[in-house]
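Before going further, learn to read the protein records used in this course. The integers have meaning only within a learned vocabulary of local backbone shapes. The record below shows the convention in full.
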Amino acid sequence: MFCGEVLPEQDTTTAAEASLWSAPHTGMEFVPVPGGSFRMGNIWDDGGRDEQPVHLVQVAAFQLARYPVTQAQWQAVMGHNPAEASGQVFVGDDKPVVNVSWNDAKDFIARLNQASGENFRLPSEAQWEYAARSGGKEQKWAGTSEEKLLPEYAWYSANSQGRPQPVGRKLPNGLGLHDMSGNVWEWCEDIWHPNYEGAPTDSSPRLGTAAGDREAERRVMRGGSWNFNALNARTTYRDWNDTGYRFFVIGLRLAR
């Protein structure tokens, strides 16, 4: 380098960051999830029967929020913060919103879509798992298959200090998504079914159920949370709750 030479500024933006799309109304960042096919379900055969049978799913490209919806983002749209009901340790603008039912999530999305003119939605269960597994890779947790490395990627019962933590503080998975394992459970669009028999193979949400079936009121949750263990944070682990159920471990993440 010659004395006095002015070097051009280096662009330190990563390829993943450069491809993000930011929602104008809330500043939510969305990560592109490329299309592909994957074997959905517990390919290691060490989970529950609800994670079976393993089946091939084709996923079209979509976008998924980089982080769970934060309390500041929820407040901007809904005018209140449901996390406050659980005490001050749960509150923080950059913490994931909690105490959100599936019905609340749908209301939030409807209001956000009306205000922004966008078409945000909840991900399907297949989309969620495909994205959590870094595009369908064989990853037990979002970003790693080694449990000893899980504290680098997730907030769960072993390291969360008994409360939800600010989003994005842990390592992302291979697609650049944060907190897909742990921090808060995330609602999916799908109606709960006890296994994958008859599940869609095109990554669409599974909605079919008998008229009046109790399961129509149950929706899928994924990802585990800050007060659940490593088992629950696995990318193939499934759970459910009623559409009106609120709790301090449940939040949401948007797709588009």
Summary: The first strand starts at residue 21 and ends at 22.
